[in-house]
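Holo prediction. Input below; ligand is NAP.
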Amino acid sequence: MLSIAIVGATGAVGRECLALLDRGIVPVERVLPVGSPRSVGRDVGAEFGLDLPLDPLTTVEELAPDDLDVGLFCAGAEVSAREAERLTSAGVLVVDNSSAFRMRADVPLVVPQVNPHALARRPSGGIVANPNCSTIQLVRALHPLHELAGLESVVVATYQAASGGGLRGLAELAGDSAKLLSDPGTQSEPGGRFGQPLAFNLVPEVGLRDETGLTHEERKLVREPRKILGLPDLRVSATAVRVPVFHCHSEAVHIRLREPVTGEAVEKALANACDLRVYGRSAGSPYPMPRFVFGEAEDRVKVHVGRIRVEPEDPRAVAVWIVADNLWVGAALNALQIVELGVSYGWLG
Ligand SMILES: NC(=O)c1ccc[n+]([C@@H]2O[C@H](COP(=O)([O-])OP(=O)(O)OC[C@H]3O[C@@H](n4cnc5c(N)ncnc54)[C@H](OP(=O)(O)O)[C@@H]3O)[C@@H](O)[C@H]2O)c1
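Structure of the complex:
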């Protein structure tokens, strides 16, 4: 039985961590919700309808590491960079959802279905990084294809939901959509959580642009799969787009393999991967869509892959369409599966 602090328990990812703990994903004897000073006094158990052994909400500065096994950080990179090592130096395992530590050599970047071996031993620095939400669903589909025929290069375009921008992103999309529906002449200014108005729009800039023209999100999509898949030379080209969808990220992915493949072999390799739902290639078969993936728990825990094609003129070129819940598969679920992995390897709890 574990004692777990959820840092950022009131946010979009934090509350999904609490919901998954409530469903018994890992056995807990104590859960400490942690928020900013704004949230002190909130009863998150009652607010979110939880049946967990919850302590009163505290701030991260007041969080004592005594008797704590895991600190699960979902409060942004600034909070992680400032507070995580205070907990690890007291022997707490930190699982971090932010980008603060992902590319550090001593920090494993883990997707349990892809590189569980990275956690065969407790990480020396006491930190495990959860990858970016778009990266997780991408590597979950790339991994079986790499095992089938070797990855040479990947081109990905993302269609990212507003929940990737946290509770504020969701509220902005709902508010702006309602305003525009009631008065289509409403003027919207640049700014807000996405830099541009998102309602009835597409924003091809997720995060700030660097001197090369890549956005932060695109840079993560290039670098993180290389580290997780252990392929430092993998060529990845990414375009990240925010779309006016509340939940679930989608990705159109073009993959070049080292060996020729058939459509049947690709479908079979994907279907054999853990918690990956394949939508067959036959005419008339359905394909995954964000509105339907965000619904039942059995769909929210899976990566959904459809529109599987092998180019008729080039049997090394494969295209797929991937949809997954960014809050579960892309964040809370992956983080708690990391905790589960530590328990199953026997070095945690
Ligand atoms: N949303 C996604 O799909 C997603 C996916 C993967 C990774 N992530 C990462 O997960 C993290 C959280 O994202 P989110 O979408 O959940 O954001 P969010 O909805 O804005 O929630 C932010 C959380 O951080 C807390 N917080 C802010 N400042 C704090 C402070 N000084 N001390 C303690 N807590 C503080 C907030 O508490 P208050 O309510 O008290 O302000 C809130 O609980 C980010 O690093 C994000 O990059 C998000």
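Residues 328-345 form the longest helix (18 residues). That is the main takeaway for now.
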